[in-house]
Structures are given as structure tokens and as C-alpha cells.
Amino acid sequence: MTQAAARHLLVDTEEQCLALKVEIEDGKDFAEVAKEHSNCPSKAQGGDLGSFGPGQMVPEFDKVVFSAPLNEVQGPVKTQFGYHLLEVTARD
Predict the structure, then answer these.
(1) 76 neighbors 36 (Cβ within 8 angstroms)
(2) What DSSP assignment string belongs to 57-71?
(3) Domains located in the chain, CATH noted
(4) 22 contact partners, CB below 8 Å, separation of at least 6
(5) pLDDT the model gives residue 45
(6) In the prediction, which pLDDT does 64 show?
(7) Are the beta carbons of 3 and 20 closer than 8 angstroms?
(8) d(CA 14, CA 89)
(9) Contact 89, 70 (CB under 8 A)
(10) Helix 14-25 and helix 30-37: axis angle, to 10°?
(11) What does the alpha-carbon distance between residue 63 and residue 77 come to, in Å, rounded to a whole number?
(12) pTM, to two decimals
């Protein structure tokens, strides 16, 4: 079964998500931005979600994680939890 590893950050608004994406694209460290702004408990690990397979995350998340290029920030991705920025760090 395909596995992926990813990190993410979660915020309440699309506007905040877009602003943080610009910060990351301008050179700010993804993990630091996640620790500072994310609403998810994974922020303690810089947004690292570890490794997981298809169906273990919400469908909107899965769609991006199992199709996006590696090591590129994706998003905003809207789910029932809010707005995410995602970065796929590995996939096999």
C-alpha cells in the first residue's frame, strides 16, 4: 500500500492561510510557522504528521497528499477543521 509522510499547519481562515504560505515561500521555515500559528496538536512537531496511508486522513487532505509534488507547499486546502497548508515530504 502507498504510504506518504507530510507536515501541515491548520488555521481558521483562508486569508491567514494564504498569508502564511507567502511567508514560507519567502523563506520562513515551515516548521517554525507551524509551531507559531497552527491550531493542530502536531504543531509541537513543526506540523509533522509522520507516515500514513490512503484513507487515514480526511478526503480533501488525502487527495493532495497522494498527488502533489514532494517538498512543495500546497494549499489552502479546506476541510471540516479549517484551512491547511500541506507539504508532502515522502511517498512510496
Answers:
(1) no
(2) S-HHHHHHHTTSPTT
(3) 4-91 (3.10.50.40)
(4) none
(5) 97
(6) 95
(7) no
(8) 23
(9) yes
(10) 150
(11) 10
(12) 0.93
Which parts of the chain sit beneath pLDDT 70? none
Q: How many residues does the chain have?
A: 92
Contact criterion met (CB below 8 Å) for 20 and 83: no
In a 3-state reduction of DSSP, which class is residue 80?
coil
For 41, the 3-state DSSP assignment is helix
10 HSE (CA, 13 A, CB side): 15
Q: What is the DSSP letter of 44?
A: G
Grid coordinates representing 22?
A: 507567502
Q: CA angle at residue 26 from 76 to 47, to 5 degrees?
A: 50
> What is the side-by-side strand order in the sheet with 73-79?
48-52, 4-11, 82-91, 73-79
